[in-house]
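Appendix B: a complete holo record

For completeness, this appendix reproduces one full record from the ligand-bound portion of the collection. The bound molecule is NAP. The inputs are the chain sequence and the ligand SMILES; the output is the full three-dimensional arrangement of the complex, encoded as structure tokens. No fields have been trimmed.
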Amino acid sequence: MALSMQDTLTLNNGVKMPCEGFGLFSMTDEDIFISSLEAAVDAGYRLFDTAAQYGNEHLLGDFLKDSGLERSEYFITSKVQNRDQGYEKTLKAFDTSLKALQLDYLDLYLVHWPLKDPFFETWKAMEHLYSEGFVRAIGVSNFESHHLDRLLSRANFVPAVEQLETHPHFSNHVMRDYLKSLGMVHQAWGPLGRGADLDDPVICDIAEKHGKSPAQIILRWHRQHGVAIIPKSQTLSRIRDNADIYDFMLTPVEMKKIDLQNKGERFGQAPDAVYVKD
Ligand SMILES: NC(=O)c1ccc[n+]([C@@H]2O[C@H](COP(=O)([O-])OP(=O)(O)OC[C@H]3O[C@@H](n4cnc5c(N)ncnc54)[C@H](OP(=O)(O)O)[C@@H]3O)[C@@H](O)[C@H]2O)c1
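The structure of the chain with NAP bound, as generated:
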């Protein structure tokens, strides 16, 4: 399977989204942010994944303004945080994000977590932003299948993307199949298990055979499953390594071996706990 850093997935509305992007969670130190983003652009990343909750949309906005990149060259994702959910509040939160990012439009806007209430009002605002052309695609994050089913019972637009915790020890393969059946793109957050899956002996063994790092093996596994990825790193050599996964292939047996490492162990919050609590 030939894959390249510049590969895109076509979303359910025809918009093309890079298969691999750069995650920006917890990156709030300005100097580290700039050096990491410079390395990421050099390595070929063009999708940048931020969120109101990460507190760095303004840093990304400043970086993009000075980057010399044309607006059409990069793809920006942000997310509405829980405290801003609801119809009017989501519209306002989007406007705040757009201003911080110093952009006229976003490429992808996600509902960060499912909340039981408000639920439909938030999605109605997302649909409004999409219909008015302020965002090229809308989606969700951390929705289990029953949250999606509830959303779809009243949605006018099927979410284009779902961003979900996904890594070898939490493969989320049932959701992967469900999203595929709905024509939605599955984008993995925490694709490296936030570092925790890198010591897995099966993955380390496969890495040694290919002369690659465990992180590269994991990212390649996601891509061969058709899952989009947004690894985060603020270490320059790792940023380059995470983009250098396109010159080898895992065999079907190696893919299966990694599949079998699933332990159903998430490190993030359980979506249902957030759904009823917030
Ligand atoms: N939608 C959501 O609810 C949600 C939740 C969490 C995250 N996200 C998004 O998903 C992105 C990625 O997830 P994540 O940041 O949680 O976790 P991740 O990408 O799985 O892991 C990041 C961690 O792995 C380390 N790392 C990265 N590349 C490595 C390599 N080649 N070798 C060894 N260690 C490596 C990083 O360390 P260094 O930085 O020190 O190199 C960092 O500690 C986030 O940045 C964010 O954009 C979304």
